[in-house]
Amino acid sequence: MNWYPLVFKPIIKERIWGGTKLRDILHKPIVSHVSGESWELSTVPGDVSVVANGALEGTDLNAVVALNPEAVLGKKVVAQFGNQFPLLFKFLDAREDLSIQVHPNDTLAKERHNSFGKTEMWYVMQADSGAQLIVGFKEDSSVEAYQTALIQHQVVDLLEKHSVQKGDVFFLETGTVHAIGAGTLIAEIQQTSDITYRIYDFDRRDAQGNLRELHTELALDAINYQHTESKKAYTKNKNESNVMVECPYFMTSFIPLTDTVRVHSSYDSFTVLMVMEGDCTLLYGDEKMSITKGATILLPAALGPVQLKGIAELLEITIS
Protein backbone atom coordinates (compact mmCIF):
# COMPACT_ATOMS: atom_id res chain seq x y z
CA MET A 1 0.00 0.00 0.00
CA ASN A 2 1.31 3.45 -0.91
CA TRP A 3 0.24 5.38 2.15
CA TYR A 4 -0.76 9.01 1.84
CA PRO A 5 -2.37 11.75 3.99
CA LEU A 6 -5.98 10.79 4.62
CA VAL A 7 -8.90 13.23 4.70
CA PHE A 8 -12.30 12.10 5.99
CA LYS A 9 -15.88 13.19 5.43
CA PRO A 10 -17.09 15.20 8.45
CA ILE A 11 -19.92 13.68 10.49
CA ILE A 12 -22.21 16.59 11.35
CA LYS A 13 -24.24 16.44 14.57
CA GLU A 14 -27.25 18.67 15.13
CA ARG A 15 -27.56 19.83 18.75
CA ILE A 16 -30.10 22.08 20.43
CA TRP A 17 -27.18 24.31 21.49
CA GLY A 18 -25.51 24.41 18.05
CA GLY A 19 -25.24 27.22 15.52
CA THR A 20 -23.74 28.03 12.11
CA LYS A 21 -20.04 28.67 12.83
CA LEU A 22 -19.06 25.24 11.54
CA ARG A 23 -20.28 26.45 8.14
CA ASP A 24 -19.45 30.13 8.36
CA ILE A 25 -15.94 29.82 9.83
CA LEU A 26 -14.81 26.25 9.06
CA HIS A 27 -16.75 25.72 5.81
CA LYS A 28 -18.32 22.44 6.89
CA PRO A 29 -21.26 21.13 4.82
CA ILE A 30 -24.06 22.03 7.22
CA VAL A 31 -27.59 23.02 6.27
CA SER A 32 -29.30 23.62 9.62
CA HIS A 33 -28.96 26.45 12.12
CA VAL A 34 -28.32 24.10 15.04
CA SER A 35 -25.20 22.19 13.95
CA GLY A 36 -23.19 21.68 17.11
CA GLU A 37 -20.45 19.21 16.22
CA SER A 38 -18.33 18.10 13.30
CA TRP A 39 -16.77 14.73 14.06
CA GLU A 40 -13.58 14.79 12.02
CA LEU A 41 -12.06 11.42 12.90
CA SER A 42 -14.12 8.80 14.69
CA THR A 43 -14.47 5.07 15.22
CA VAL A 44 -17.35 5.41 17.71
CA PRO A 45 -19.84 2.65 16.77
CA GLY A 46 -22.46 4.05 14.42
CA ASP A 47 -20.28 7.06 13.61
CA VAL A 48 -17.20 5.71 11.84
CA SER A 49 -15.38 8.19 9.60
CA VAL A 50 -15.09 7.49 5.86
CA VAL A 51 -12.11 8.46 3.69
CA ALA A 52 -12.83 11.30 1.27
CA ASN A 53 -9.67 11.29 -0.87
CA GLY A 54 -7.31 9.09 -2.86
CA ALA A 55 -7.19 5.36 -3.43
CA LEU A 56 -9.01 4.58 -0.17
CA GLU A 57 -11.93 6.94 -0.83
CA GLY A 58 -15.16 5.43 0.52
CA THR A 59 -13.33 3.16 3.00
CA ASP A 60 -14.16 3.59 6.67
CA LEU A 61 -11.47 4.18 9.27
CA ASN A 62 -11.84 0.77 10.90
CA ALA A 63 -11.29 -0.92 7.53
CA VAL A 64 -8.28 1.31 6.83
CA VAL A 65 -6.71 0.28 10.14
CA ALA A 66 -7.47 -3.39 9.43
CA LEU A 67 -5.43 -3.27 6.21
CA ASN A 68 -2.27 -2.97 8.29
CA PRO A 69 -2.67 -1.79 11.90
CA GLU A 70 1.01 -1.06 12.49
CA ALA A 71 1.34 0.86 9.21
CA VAL A 72 -1.65 3.05 10.06
CA LEU A 73 -1.46 3.37 13.85
CA GLY A 74 2.22 2.69 14.51
CA LYS A 75 3.87 -0.13 16.44
CA LYS A 76 3.84 1.71 19.76
CA VAL A 77 0.14 2.60 19.44
CA VAL A 78 -0.83 -1.00 18.59
CA ALA A 79 1.17 -2.24 21.56
CA GLN A 80 -0.62 0.21 23.87
CA PHE A 81 -4.17 0.31 22.49
CA GLY A 82 -4.54 -2.69 20.17
CA ASN A 83 -5.96 -2.35 16.68
CA GLN A 84 -8.57 0.29 17.52
CA PHE A 85 -8.05 3.91 16.54
CA PRO A 86 -7.78 5.38 20.05
CA LEU A 87 -8.81 9.03 19.59
CA LEU A 88 -11.81 11.09 18.55
CA PHE A 89 -11.43 14.54 16.94
CA LYS A 90 -14.20 17.15 16.82
CA PHE A 91 -15.03 20.78 16.19
CA LEU A 92 -17.82 22.20 18.39
CA ASP A 93 -19.93 25.33 17.94
CA ALA A 94 -21.76 26.39 21.10
CA ARG A 95 -24.42 28.96 20.26
CA GLU A 96 -25.89 28.31 23.71
CA ASP A 97 -24.40 26.94 26.93
CA LEU A 98 -23.89 23.19 27.00
CA SER A 99 -25.00 21.18 30.02
CA ILE A 100 -22.61 20.67 32.93
CA GLN A 101 -21.17 17.18 32.65
CA VAL A 102 -18.41 14.78 33.60
CA HIS A 103 -16.71 11.80 31.95
CA PRO A 104 -15.75 8.54 33.71
CA ASN A 105 -12.22 7.16 33.82
CA ASP A 106 -11.10 4.01 32.00
CA THR A 107 -11.97 1.71 34.91
CA LEU A 108 -15.53 2.96 35.38
CA ALA A 109 -16.16 3.22 31.65
CA LYS A 110 -14.97 -0.35 31.12
CA GLU A 111 -17.08 -1.73 33.97
CA ARG A 112 -20.26 0.14 33.08
CA HIS A 113 -20.12 0.65 29.32
CA ASN A 114 -17.30 -1.56 27.95
CA SER A 115 -15.73 1.65 26.69
CA PHE A 116 -12.63 3.76 27.07
CA GLY A 117 -12.85 6.65 29.49
CA LYS A 118 -12.85 10.18 28.12
CA THR A 119 -9.79 12.27 28.80
CA GLU A 120 -9.95 15.31 26.52
CA MET A 121 -8.57 18.74 25.69
CA TRP A 122 -10.01 21.93 24.21
CA TYR A 123 -8.40 24.53 21.98
CA VAL A 124 -10.45 27.72 21.67
CA MET A 125 -10.58 28.64 17.97
CA GLN A 126 -12.90 31.62 18.38
CA ALA A 127 -14.79 33.20 21.26
CA ASP A 128 -17.44 35.89 21.29
CA SER A 129 -17.04 38.74 23.76
CA GLY A 130 -17.82 37.52 27.27
CA ALA A 131 -17.64 33.81 26.40
CA GLN A 132 -16.79 31.47 29.27
CA LEU A 133 -15.95 27.86 29.99
CA ILE A 134 -16.68 26.00 33.22
CA VAL A 135 -13.82 23.72 34.25
CA GLY A 136 -13.57 22.01 37.65
CA PHE A 137 -14.23 23.21 41.19
CA LYS A 138 -13.19 26.66 42.47
CA GLU A 139 -11.69 24.97 45.52
CA ASP A 140 -11.57 21.49 47.01
CA SER A 141 -15.09 20.20 47.60
CA SER A 142 -16.76 16.96 48.68
CA VAL A 143 -19.55 14.59 47.72
CA GLU A 144 -21.72 16.05 50.49
CA ALA A 145 -21.22 19.68 49.46
CA TYR A 146 -21.80 18.80 45.83
CA GLN A 147 -25.05 16.91 46.58
CA THR A 148 -26.36 19.77 48.71
CA ALA A 149 -25.61 22.29 45.94
CA LEU A 150 -27.28 20.00 43.41
CA ILE A 151 -30.48 19.78 45.46
CA GLN A 152 -30.51 23.56 45.87
CA HIS A 153 -29.84 24.12 42.15
CA GLN A 154 -26.62 25.95 43.08
CA VAL A 155 -23.97 23.58 41.72
CA VAL A 156 -22.71 26.30 39.35
CA ASP A 157 -21.63 28.31 42.41
CA LEU A 158 -19.06 25.62 43.26
CA LEU A 159 -17.48 25.60 39.82
CA GLU A 160 -14.70 27.66 38.25
CA LYS A 161 -15.55 29.91 35.31
CA HIS A 162 -12.90 31.01 32.82
CA SER A 163 -13.32 33.93 30.45
CA VAL A 164 -11.75 32.72 27.20
CA GLN A 165 -10.24 33.96 23.99
CA LYS A 166 -8.72 32.44 20.87
CA GLY A 167 -5.73 30.22 21.62
CA ASP A 168 -6.71 29.21 25.15
CA VAL A 169 -6.10 25.55 25.96
CA PHE A 170 -7.72 23.39 28.64
CA PHE A 171 -6.81 19.81 29.55
CA LEU A 172 -9.68 17.87 31.12
CA GLU A 173 -8.72 14.70 32.89
CA THR A 174 -11.53 12.24 33.51
CA GLY A 175 -13.59 13.29 36.51
CA THR A 176 -13.32 17.02 35.75
CA VAL A 177 -16.75 18.67 35.86
CA HIS A 178 -17.06 20.99 32.86
CA ALA A 179 -19.28 22.87 30.44
CA ILE A 180 -18.65 24.72 27.18
CA GLY A 181 -20.20 28.18 27.30
CA ALA A 182 -22.16 30.04 24.64
CA GLY A 183 -20.21 31.85 21.95
CA THR A 184 -17.25 29.48 21.66
CA LEU A 185 -15.84 27.49 18.74
CA ILE A 186 -13.72 24.63 20.04
CA ALA A 187 -11.34 22.02 18.63
CA GLU A 188 -11.59 18.93 20.85
CA ILE A 189 -9.21 15.97 21.08
CA GLN A 190 -10.31 13.04 23.25
CA GLN A 191 -10.17 9.33 23.79
CA THR A 192 -12.48 7.30 21.58
CA SER A 193 -15.55 7.40 23.79
CA ASP A 194 -19.02 8.88 23.72
CA ILE A 195 -19.74 8.35 27.44
CA THR A 196 -20.98 11.51 29.13
CA TYR A 197 -22.78 11.95 32.45
CA ARG A 198 -24.99 15.07 32.41
CA ILE A 199 -25.21 16.46 35.93
CA TYR A 200 -26.99 19.80 35.49
CA ASP A 201 -28.75 21.47 32.55
CA PHE A 202 -29.72 24.84 34.04
CA ASP A 203 -33.31 23.53 34.46
CA ARG A 204 -33.93 24.00 30.73
CA ARG A 205 -36.87 22.36 29.01
CA ASP A 206 -37.16 21.11 25.46
CA ALA A 207 -39.85 22.10 22.94
CA GLN A 208 -42.23 19.61 24.58
CA GLY A 209 -41.61 21.08 28.03
CA ASN A 210 -39.50 18.15 29.24
CA LEU A 211 -36.30 18.34 31.27
CA ARG A 212 -33.33 16.54 29.71
CA GLU A 213 -32.18 13.33 31.39
CA LEU A 214 -29.59 13.72 34.14
CA HIS A 215 -27.12 11.05 35.29
CA THR A 216 -26.86 12.15 38.91
CA GLU A 217 -26.10 8.80 40.55
CA LEU A 218 -23.70 7.60 37.87
CA ALA A 219 -21.73 10.84 38.17
CA LEU A 220 -21.18 10.72 41.94
CA ASP A 221 -18.20 8.38 41.95
CA ALA A 222 -16.92 9.61 38.57
CA ILE A 223 -16.28 13.18 39.77
CA ASN A 224 -12.95 14.53 41.00
CA TYR A 225 -14.00 16.89 43.82
CA GLN A 226 -10.54 18.44 44.17
CA HIS A 227 -9.55 21.75 42.60
CA THR A 228 -7.27 21.26 39.60
CA GLU A 229 -5.48 23.65 37.25
CA SER A 230 -6.82 22.73 33.82
CA LYS A 231 -5.76 25.76 31.78
CA LYS A 232 -2.44 25.19 30.05
CA ALA A 233 0.24 27.72 29.15
CA TYR A 234 2.41 26.93 26.13
CA THR A 235 5.13 28.45 23.97
CA LYS A 236 4.49 29.69 20.43
CA ASN A 237 7.89 29.43 18.78
CA LYS A 238 7.47 29.82 15.03
CA ASN A 239 8.02 26.85 12.73
CA GLU A 240 8.34 24.49 15.69
CA SER A 241 6.14 21.96 17.47
CA ASN A 242 5.31 23.58 20.82
CA VAL A 243 3.94 20.97 23.24
CA MET A 244 0.64 22.01 24.83
CA VAL A 245 -0.61 18.79 26.43
CA GLU A 246 1.12 15.46 26.96
CA CYS A 247 -0.66 12.57 28.65
CA PRO A 248 -0.78 8.76 28.26
CA TYR A 249 -3.48 9.06 25.58
CA PHE A 250 -2.16 11.81 23.29
CA MET A 251 0.34 14.61 22.87
CA THR A 252 -0.82 17.85 21.25
CA SER A 253 1.53 20.55 19.97
CA PHE A 254 0.96 23.99 18.46
CA ILE A 255 2.72 24.88 15.20
CA PRO A 256 2.76 28.57 14.21
CA LEU A 257 3.84 28.11 10.59
CA THR A 258 5.40 31.05 8.75
CA ASP A 259 7.82 29.19 6.48
CA THR A 260 8.49 25.43 6.59
CA VAL A 261 8.54 22.74 9.25
CA ARG A 262 9.08 18.99 9.20
CA VAL A 263 6.61 16.79 11.09
CA HIS A 264 5.77 13.11 11.52
CA SER A 265 9.37 11.90 11.67
CA SER A 266 8.61 8.84 13.84
CA TYR A 267 7.07 5.58 12.66
CA ASP A 268 5.89 4.70 16.18
CA SER A 269 2.59 6.59 15.91
CA PHE A 270 0.19 8.16 13.46
CA THR A 271 -0.04 11.97 13.43
CA VAL A 272 -3.16 14.09 13.05
CA LEU A 273 -2.99 17.70 11.85
CA MET A 274 -5.84 20.13 12.49
CA VAL A 275 -5.62 23.52 10.77
CA MET A 276 -6.68 26.32 13.12
CA GLU A 277 -5.88 29.28 10.85
CA GLY A 278 -4.57 29.99 7.35
CA ASP A 279 -3.58 27.48 4.71
CA CYS A 280 -0.46 25.60 3.75
CA THR A 281 0.95 22.90 1.52
CA LEU A 282 1.70 19.42 2.83
CA LEU A 283 4.68 17.82 1.02
CA TYR A 284 5.20 14.04 1.22
CA GLY A 285 7.53 12.07 -1.01
CA ASP A 286 7.13 13.57 -4.49
CA GLU A 287 3.52 14.56 -3.81
CA LYS A 288 1.82 17.57 -2.28
CA MET A 289 -1.64 18.62 -1.14
CA SER A 290 -3.16 21.89 0.00
CA ILE A 291 -4.88 22.11 3.36
CA THR A 292 -6.81 25.03 4.81
CA LYS A 293 -8.56 26.19 7.98
CA GLY A 294 -10.91 23.55 9.35
CA ALA A 295 -9.07 20.63 7.74
CA THR A 296 -8.20 17.49 9.72
CA ILE A 297 -5.56 15.19 8.20
CA LEU A 298 -4.49 11.70 9.32
CA LEU A 299 -0.86 10.84 8.53
CA PRO A 300 -0.45 7.03 8.75
CA ALA A 301 2.57 5.91 10.72
CA ALA A 302 4.16 4.32 7.64
CA LEU A 303 3.95 7.52 5.61
CA GLY A 304 7.24 8.86 6.89
CA PRO A 305 8.41 12.46 7.24
CA VAL A 306 6.18 15.25 5.95
CA GLN A 307 6.94 18.92 5.37
CA LEU A 308 4.53 21.79 5.89
CA LYS A 309 5.02 25.03 3.97
CA GLY A 310 2.96 28.20 4.17
CA ILE A 311 1.38 30.56 6.69
CA ALA A 312 -0.94 28.80 9.10
CA GLU A 313 -1.55 27.70 12.67
CA LEU A 314 -1.92 23.96 13.27
CA LEU A 315 -2.43 21.46 16.05
CA GLU A 316 -0.22 18.38 15.75
CA ILE A 317 -1.51 15.34 17.64
CA THR A 318 0.35 12.10 18.13
CA ILE A 319 0.86 9.45 20.82
CA SER A 320 4.22 9.76 22.54
Concise overview:
The protein is mainly beta and 320 residues long. It has helices at residues 21-24, 61-67, 69-73, 75-81, 106-113, 143-151, 216-220, and strands at 6-7, 11-19, 35-41, 43-44, 47-48, 87-94, 100-102, 120-127, 132-137, 159-163, 169-172, 178-180, 184-191, 197-200, 242-246, 251-257, 260-263, 271-284, 287-292, 296-299, 306-318.
Describe this structure in words.
With 320 residues, the protein is mainly β. The protein is built from seven helices and 21 strands. A hairpin with a 2-residue loop joins β18 and β19. The longest helix has 9 residues. The model has no long low-confidence stretch (mean pLDDT 95).
Global shape: globular
Biggest β-sheet strands, sense, barrel? 8 strands, antiparallel
Low-confidence stretches: none
The level of helicity is 10-25%
**Helix count from the secondary structure assignment:** 7
Estimated radius of gyration: 20 Å
How would you spell out the order of helices and strands?
EEHEEEHHHEEHEEHEEEEEHEEEEEEE
**Whole-Å distance between the termini?**
25 Å
Number of strands: 21
Query: Please, what is the average pLDDT?
Result: 95
Q: Strand fraction band?
A: 35-45%
The structural class is mainly beta
What is the topological layout?
Elements (H helix, E strand, L loop, with lengths): L5 E2 L3 E9 L1 H4 L10 E7 L1 E2 L2 E2 L12 H7 L1 H5 L1 H7 L5 E8 L5 E3 L3 H8 L6 E8 L4 E6 L5 H9 L7 E5 L5 E4 L5 E3 L3 E8 L5 E4 L15 H5 L21 E5 L4 E7 L2 E4 L7 E14 L2 E6 L3 E4 L6 E13 L2
Antiparallel strand pairs: 1-20, 2-3, 3-6, 4-5, 6-13, 7-14, 8-11, 8-13, 9-10, 9-12, 15-16, 16-21, 17-21, 18-19, 18-20, 18-21
